[in-house]
């Protein structure tokens, strides 16, 4: 397939209310529509955007994949002709995962990823699963992670080894963590030489007395390559960012520039041949391939 | 031993000139003295502070450990009664490593660490070696890394698993990398729940037409714990920072606050029990213990 040079992305910062699935979907629909009107070709929704994590009831509100939420997403993707990534609680037999899905512009389910790291209190309700992978799409080379994973740099290194271009991270994280998470997002883009799309939930969880952090952001590596040289120079890493309002955060990715930088930078190769890199690559491989491009 | 609650550290940002060992040591001496006068109990010098990396001549200018440079450091440490960490080119049979040493206030050599990751062009001249470890000292739990390692988050995770309090990173990195390196330093402190002491070389390498980045900094985790609660709140992560001038960057570390945070934060335990964490811990273990507290 032809390599895309530019890509417009729209990240939906959604106020995710517990026990209000219908209302969450209604507001998500309006914001997806707004992103489409703005010309976005890849739209990202937060982690567990339809239900919130709702830990005590996670098994009850979780759905299989494919299932009602992925069908809802697939219907919008094919109607608008856009790719959609989103987080949902996935029921998988006895287990519930905080998963992310990637859905193509024809509505097909292209990838499912299950959050690797589970917070200690979550562990009674959610199951973590190791394994990332990149997916080559007409939009670029995409890798999914979810929320809390972003605090664990090792989770992204299998994607880095495989030359990921766009790391997509739906999240529903709490407000006190906003500042460290933002610092880690900047570092993830730098150390993995990739765009990072962080679509965060916002709003209040009034049942639990919690506030979500919002701070949805499109981040690029702070490095660029001089136009007629292989010299590195600095570029502004935050392309677009929200505070805590419900909104769409959109930006244009320059994939051509990213690929030039990935080709010129020594650190991807330095990582792949280092023993720690090799240990991580081996440990991160996802067991069992999912059916790529499977019809919904 | 009694746990220290506070510690004053002084990071020497030194202009490191190639082929001017005597002059480098003379200026280092003056700046170490300045840090001691300022009440610093741990003084950190840059990577290869006596010689620069001087790749084509690295084998020639490298020294064994212990050797002349560590003796020079030990003499200052015991004279002033301070701990010193510093980087040097270490000759080890056929190999040359960019190493860091930690020297106690009685002049004893407490730890030697060899930089893990070697840049592709360096690989003809320098050898990387996997393995980190924490050292419990009267000043706190210290872990050494060196320069380019800071771009590879996996290098620090063995230290994180062992509850490192102070990551010491002597460095001699180039100016175009200043901004991404600073972003990664902030993330390293956040994700590893530790102080990061980054002592950078500054100045010009006129032989090679290179400029060093400076930007020596004392970084802490952006998280703190409320005084009478286990609530996380935000704190300013950069305690002290230089631009490119030759100087001492000093700051007071609050180890008591750090330990409260490490005890309250869930992510160290979440890391240790995750399969990727376990893979990294196994791969990072340093083969063969060095003699702790060995007389110089």
From TrEMBL, chains A, B:
<dbReference type="InterPro" id="IPR003010">
    <property type="entry name" value="C-N_Hydrolase"/>
</dbReference>
<keyword id="KW-0378">Hydrolase</keyword>
<dbReference type="GO" id="GO:0016787">
    <property type="term" value="F:hydrolase activity"/>
</dbReference>
<protein>
    <submittedName>
        <fullName>Carbon-nitrogen hydrolase family protein</fullName>
    </submittedName>
</protein>
<dbReference type="InterPro" id="IPR036526">
    <property type="entry name" value="C-N_Hydrolase_sf"/>
</dbReference>
<comment type="similarity">
    <text>Belongs to the carbon-nitrogen hydrolase superfamily. NIT1/NIT2 family.</text>
</comment>
<dbReference type="Pfam" id="PF00795">
    <property type="entry name" value="CN_hydrolase"/>
</dbReference>
<feature type="domain" description="CN hydrolase">
    <location>
        <begin position="7"/>
        <end position="255"/>
    </location>
</feature>
């Amino acid at each position: 397939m032809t390599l895309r040079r530019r890509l417009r992305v729209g990240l939906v910062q959604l106020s995710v209310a517990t026990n209000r699935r219908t209302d969450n979907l209604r507001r998500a629909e309006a914001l997806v529509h707004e992103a489409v009107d703005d010309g976005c070709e890849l739209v990202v929704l937060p982690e567990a955007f339809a239900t919130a994590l709702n830990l005590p009831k996670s098994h009850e509100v979780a759905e299989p994949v494919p299932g009602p939420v992925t069908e809802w997403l697939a219907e919008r993707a094919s109607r608008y002709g856009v790719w959609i990534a989103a987080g949902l609680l996935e029921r998988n037999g006895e287990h519930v995962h905080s998963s992310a899905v990637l859905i193509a512009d024809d509505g097909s389910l292209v990838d499912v990823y299950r959050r690797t790291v589970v917070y200690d209190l979550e562990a009674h309700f959610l199951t973590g699963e190791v394994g990332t992978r990149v997916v080559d799409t007409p939009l670029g080379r995409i890798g999914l992670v979810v929320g809390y994973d972003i605090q664990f740099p090792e989770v992204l290194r299998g994607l880095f080894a495989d030359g990921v271009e766009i790391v997509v991270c739906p999240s529903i994280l709490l407000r006190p963590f906003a500042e460290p998470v933002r610092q880690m997002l900047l570092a993830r883009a730098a150390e993995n030489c990739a765009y990072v799309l962080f679509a965060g939930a916002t709003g209040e969880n009034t049942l639990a007395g919690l506030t979500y952090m919002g701070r949805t952001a499109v981040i690029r590596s702070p490095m660029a390559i001089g136009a007629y040289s292989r010299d590195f120079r600095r570029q502004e890493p935050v392309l677009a960012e929200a505070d805590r309002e419900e909104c769409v955060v959109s930006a244009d990715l320059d994939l051509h520039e990213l690929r030039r930088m990935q080709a010129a930078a020594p650190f991807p190769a330095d990582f792949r041949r280092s023993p720690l890199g090799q240990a991580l690559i081996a440990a991160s491989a996802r067991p069992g391939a999912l059916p790529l491009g499977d019809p919904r």
